[in-house]
Amino acid sequence: MSPFTVGLIGIVVFIVLLIFRMPIAFAMALVGFAGFGYLTSTSAAFNMVVQEIYNTFSSYSLSVIAMFVWMGFLAYYSGIGSRLYIFAYKLIGHLPGGLAIATQAACGIFGAVCGSNTATAATMAAIALPEMQKYKYDTSLATASIAAGGVLGVLIPPSVIFIVYGMATEQSIGKLFMAGILPGIILMLLFMGAIYILTSWNQTLGPPGPKASWSERLQALRGGVIEALAVFIISVGGLIIGIFTPTEAGAVGAAGVLFVALLGKHMNWEKITKSLLDTTRTTAMIMLLIAGAMIFGRFMAVSRMPFELASWTGSLALPPVAIMGMILLIYLILGCFIDALALILLTIPIFFPIVLNLGYDPIWFGVIIVLVVAMGVITPPVGMNVYIIKGIVPDIPLEVIFKGIGPFLLAVILCIVLLILFPSIATFLPNLL
Predict the structure, then answer these.
(1) Distance of alpha carbon 255 from alpha carbon 246, whole angstroms
(2) Do 53 and 134 lie in a common domain?
(3) φ, ψ of residue 41 in degrees (nearest 5)
(4) In 191-289, at which residue ranges do the beta strands (DSSP E only) sit?
(5) Based on CB atoms within 10 Å of each CB, which residue in 41, 96, 253, 356 is the most buried?
(6) Are residues 350 and 237 in the same domain?
(7) What is the pTM of this model?
(8) Which 8-state DSSP code applies to residue 244?
(9) Cα(9)–Cα(135) distance, rounded to whole angstroms?
(10) Domain interval for residue 24
């Protein structure tokens, strides 16, 4: 068999293993080992696996993941999310759908100190959902708005997905962070607009809450928003202007959140211990995914499948935008079945050479990919954010949550279209560096 055929067979076997519910990291590693061994030798495959696993878990550059993950869990356990929501609620909670709109604002700000869609969704579900239920919000709108708001956690920097994409494609993490700022703000505004339009047409979906005084708003502002923004500016801003390396920026951010939490007496030893345990579990999971993806990527490289596909797509009598549309459609379909982080690690070795061959900006493509795979966390059957909401409120059926996702899905699609039509939305800030 030709190496290309072996590569195709490897992908089919990988999909079959996923159907039988083998963990994605192990499925990638197993297929990568077997395929690499078939195309080279068994001893070479063993050496390659040992080398990739060791390199992944001993990599200093990948320690940035642990730092930003810990920063997010510290923010979660210290209650920063609840204080951000209170501020947003006091500011715009009196509008039609104001509580759901406030949730998007809180998700956006919390995402600036978190970097995780699941942590953002879980935090806001615990805080915002009881308030929306109190004011008789439509259950589908309330739950779906929180699930969608969690997407902002991986688009607005810092973002674990941007970090992993940057590592996999050797792109500047600082530039990727910069690239996510404007699209993140635009997506947040689109979510807010969708909620406002829905609740303006039918105010029973999201009745306005009581209007807060300016003194109450200022008090809420001092209650945690300033500290959260300060941590974001110091950590991410220091990375962007070159004061910190990515790992140092993550460490400074985590230390900043811990300092603010301790200063405000919002953190104790039990919460610190929980944050460290959750960080260890999450980081180990991500590292295993990266190691598995590296092994699978080595197999893809020796099969020459990515390069053959890049040459084939370059020879197609189609404009680059049509080929890009095909790639995004594939991502959208796969995103419904595979976790966002795993999907990026799995597909980057295949599609990234194609994207470069078409002449697209790799930083812009990183933002597009984050948006497309983020759609997968709110769409069935995987819909990770939806399952998190379900776990927090088990009495609400999954179909009720998915029922309200439609308007937010359209908002993400509109954001992607805007980025395709106006790429400078993503590249303007990075180009200033």
Answers:
(1) 14
(2) no
(3) -160, 160
(4) none
(5) 253
(6) yes
(7) 0.78
(8) S
(9) 54
(10) 1-58+292-303
